Amino acid sequence: MELDSARENPPPESFFLPGGRSSAALGEAFSQILHRLTRQEARRGNGRDAVFQDLSALIEATECGRLFELSGAPIHGMSEMLGEVAKALGTYAAPPTEESVRSDGHSGVSEKAAEVGLLFLKLLRKVETAKNSLACPAWKTGLHHLAGPVYIFAITHSLEQPWTSPRSQNVAGEVLSLLLRVSDCGSVAGFLHGENGDGKGRFTVIMGLLKPDLNKESWKNNPATKHVFSWTLQQVTRPWLNQHLERILPPSLLISDDYQTENKILGIRCLHHIVLNVAVLLCLLDLFPILEKAVQWKGDMARPTTQCDEVLQLILTHMEPEHRLLLRRTYARNLPAFVKRLGILTVRHLKRLERVIIGYLEVYDGPEEEARLKILETLKLLIQHTWPRVSCRLVVLLKALLKLICDVARDPNLTPEPVKTALLEEATDCLILLDHSSQGRVKGLLATIPQSCEDGTVVNCIREVQQASEGADYHGTKPCVT
């Protein structure tokens, strides 16, 4: 009975005979199979076998020219219909929701995936045959509609996961390899961002297919989606990732904000990848007001942490132990804008910022000194925005700035003179701001140095601080450099 139900309105035998298919009839046959794939009966054993057998026979018996022709199907072109069938197959082979896993586990998922993978291999071999024949240019349109769903299936089942088995992983790996081959791509990265800068990458298409399953209400429905998103994101690096920030940032923040540790770690990895590879990281600051528009603060309670807080915390977490100069420069380059954005709320990060600032000021950064200049800019902003809380850190910051001034002054020839001048000016400005925020304590602490120091450059910097503090008004006003 079940078999009869699953095979309701099966394609007539003439569909499987050479010359026995009109374009409209072929389209109708695929439409019926698509309908059967999405019905509940197709998820049961006999019904599933019947649908797969009919689809397999239909693919094998249909000539390439007919399979990818642009018109003739009742509603869509054949290529679009194949794309819909591919999506239905991917959905059919998807792992169950977390609730279902608790009751039934991942029973049968790997078997379904292996069967679906074999069908995708047949479809892709048809694409390859059409491509090699040179007589069927429509194969490109067919591949365009198939590539996204087939890729998502392949990544879902080729990675080691609770729902995969060695066989399903092998089949999915073959599907991915064949997809790359027919797409003329030597790597997954090339497939996603385009080979040789041709701009024909499929990252946008794949993110579009994943998007409905990556919102607040749906992202846990399919446990594979977050892994496909994360793995795919990490294959694309700079400069190609820049243009996709608005697509990749919201899901990354959503996953990192989950209560489950596994998801937090996955989301943080995504955010870390974005921080390292999006040159326009500062666009985050333009997006935060939109992403945080629902957050409202009531004056009688603590301000809620925001996504800007989370990203700054992530940046600082990776900055502190980082020893590679290129990454140190990348992090430092973006730090001032985050302090500006958070303003007084930067006090939440003051302890870690202090450690990062002191650590980065100690390390020579190369002839341009980009990292140390940006750290000094960050320190100036930090003093201006959080000056009531900086005075207790006065001695530590004063020592770090004086050490920097002495190191630069004694640098014989490693750093160009304009860069040295910029470093000394920025460090001196920081000392002036510290003096103002501490109501003149810096001037007092520096008072004896000009008498004991023989380095003219250091003495000049200290005298400049002393002169700036003469006649200064220390009545709780915000410190500034004039």
How would you describe this structure to a colleague?
It is a single chain. This protein is an all-alpha fold and 482 residues long. 65% of the residues lie in helices and 0% in strands. The protein has 24 helices and no strands. The longest helix has 25 residues, at 109-133. The termini are far apart. The model is unreliable at 1-8, 14-20 and 70-76 (pLDDT under 50).
Summarize this structure as a short list of keywords or feature phrases.
482 residues; mainly alpha; 24 helices; 65% helix
Short synopsis of the structure:
The chain has 24 helices and no strands. The protein is 65% helix and 0% strand.
List the helices and strands and how they pair.
Elements (H helix, E strand, L loop, with lengths): L1 H5 L16 H15 L7 H17 L2 H4 L10 H15 L5 H7 L4 H25 L5 H20 L7 H17 L5 H6 L9 H8 L14 H9 L11 H12 L4 H17 L5 H9 L15 H13 L5 H18 L7 H12 L8 H21 L3 H17 L6 H21 L3 H5 L3 H4 L3 H14 L13
Helix pairs in contact: 2-3, 2-5, 3-7, 5-7, 5-8, 7-8, 7-9, 8-9, 8-11, 12-14, 13-14, 13-15, 14-16, 16-17, 17-19, 19-21, 20-21, 21-24
